[in-house]
Amino acid sequence: MKALVLAVGVVGLTAALPASAGIMTIGGSYAEGCFKAAEQHSTTLESLNTCDRAFTEEALTRDDELATHVNRGILLMLRDDYGRAHSDFSLAMAMNPNRSEPYMNMAILKLRNGKSAEAVQLFSKAIELRTELPEVAYYGRALANEDVGNVKAAYADLQRATSLKPKWEAPARDLARYQVRRR
């Protein structure tokens, strides 16, 4: 399975933080349809029904079940259905606490809900689990750190995000807002 970047803004912080890291499924057509819906940000009721049908009508492997929870959670988060998105990400984390994608998406969800202190911990966990999108995790953690007043850590995370993906404008733009003064 492979993690993907899905670009959607974080409400009230910046429009540049990707919404999520989806997970490609190997299994049946509904699970694959759910993945494609998350990848394309197709938040229609039909897309959600496709995800639901993957659970009820397909014999999913454990990995595909986890992936479908993450992908449906992404769609729910994009629809601002944070409670159900939280449930899907929590289930995915419980199914395999060694997968980074559920932690990354839960961190983004927490950040969008103004729970930045929790987001910092979840982004850190995604980094610890070697997310395939470390630049996103460092950038998200930078936003969360700045929000809780940990400016020094935010600056370090912005530097790290910029070094990992130099052509990504958002971290570089946010980094340019900082002024380093020697005492």
Comma- or semicolon-separated keywords:
Serine Threonine Protein Phosphatase 5, Tetratricopeptide repeat; two-stranded antiparallel ribbon; 64% helix; elongated; mainly alpha; 183 residues
In brief, what are we looking at here?
The protein is mainly alpha-helical and 183 residues long. It has a single domain (3-176), classed as Tetratricopeptide repeat domain (Serine Threonine Protein Phosphatase 5, Tetratricopeptide repeat, Alpha Horseshoe), CATH 1.25.40. Helices cover 64% and strands 6% of the residues.
List the uncertain runs.
1-15
Oligomeric state, counting identical vs distinct chains: single chain
Give the second-level CATH assignment, the architecture. Alpha Horseshoe
The average pLDDT value, as a whole number, equals: 87
What is the alpha-carbon Rg in Å?
Answer: 16 Å
Number of strands: 2
Number of helices: 9
Structural class comes to mainly alpha
For the sheet with most strands, the description reads: 2 strands, antiparallel
Q: In angstroms, what separates the terminal alpha carbons?
A: 49 Å
Q: Going by CATH, what is the homologous superfamily?
A: Tetratricopeptide repeat domain
**Total of domains:** 1
